[in-house]
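Journal club side-thread
Mid-discussion, someone asked how the predicted structure for our own chain would compare to the paper's figures. Pasting it here so we can look after the session.
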Amino acid sequence: MSASDPTSNATSSGNATSRHWIANQPYLLLCITALTWAGNAIVGRLAVGHIPPVTLSFLRWSLAFVIILPFAWNHLRRDWGAIRNQIGLIIFLSITGIGIFNTLQYWALEYTQALNTLLLQSALPLFVALWSLILLGIRLTLTQACGITLSLLGVLMILLHGDVSVLTSLTFNKGDLIFMVGVVVFGIYSVLSLKRPRIDGLSFAAFTFGCGAACQIPFLIREMITQPMMDLDASNLLSLIYVAVFPSTLAYVCFNRAVQLIGANRAAPFFHLAPVFGTVMSIVFLGEQLHLFHVIGFALVLTGVFVASRKPAVA
């Protein structure tokens, strides 16, 4: 018997490395997440009056579960023992990060604008830092704090159109308060996802998608009794397809993987990119004009994200 060909082995290894390259690029994964979540706020706002909030959230995650299950099935079977050993934690993550946060977001969009939710979402890094300290004893470094501050200033520059006086007339309504609760809850999910068992990312995503959808069933039944059902028209179906594929399946797989690679505190500043991407979308697709405050805001956000997400120097 001849020994295996080392050239063939090297080629196979190279192909495997190429296939898994993107899975090891946390900053790219987080940019994809922010981009799709910016679109989710816009689609969620467009769905108001057409798809009830719990229905939209339930169908979003049910469809995402169906999409990802064929790819995750073998991983789920292999990882089931590890999942069962920490079933309480994973169910809690499913309820907070999948069930509660997204339902509250769509509910909030019935009372407030997508722009408001993007602004409030920018506070997420602060809550991630707070929950990291409370739950895991992880302190925010000075560099991370400076980066978060810079990127938050950039977000405010964009959303306030460079006019700080707008803050004096800024009012928060019921929807803003609802979404703020969602942001606090998602901060818990972001931090505790670091404590999940060492299982494949597809296993984790599939289980949390399915469990998160299932936990919404009692609220879905109540909503179906008290509110009109959604129409099965082309616009609603396209909205469902978008939220199931991009801000659900794609974004959560990317986000969970990135947090595993660099931690919640370094990943959180990338949420500041969501309003930036939302602004770019409005310029490209809605024909809005590019102004100086956009350029300054983009620069501040990108600088802040770069500073906050850098790996701490080893003493």
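Post-session note: Residues 53 and 107 are 5 Å apart (CA to CA).
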